[in-house]
Automatic annotation (TrEMBL):
One matching Pfam family: Zn_ribbon_CSL
Residue ranges of domain DPH-type MB in the record: 1-27
Source organism of this protein record: Rhynochetos jubatus
Coiled-coil intervals: none
Keyword field contains Ion transport: no
GO molecular function, one term: metal ion binding
Membrane-spanning intervals of the chain: none
Official protein name in the record: DPH3 protein
Length: 49
């Protein structure tokens, strides 16, 4: 699982070669508390290639 998966609420991963299933147990509010969301850039330039 990636951090992005956890942010989207996905907390279960399965092993592709066996029947192992992993569930991540965490406090989503605590996990997202220190998350910094970048503001979108307002000044964009288009460059012709």
């Amino acid at each position: 699982l990636l951090q992005e998966d956890l942010e989207n609420g996905e907390d279960v991963a399965t092993c592709p070669s066996c029947s192992l299933i992993l569930r991540v147990i965490y406090d989503q509010e605590q996990f997202m508390r220190d998350e910094v969301i970048a503001e979108p850039l307002t000044n964009k330039e288009l460059v012709k290639c």
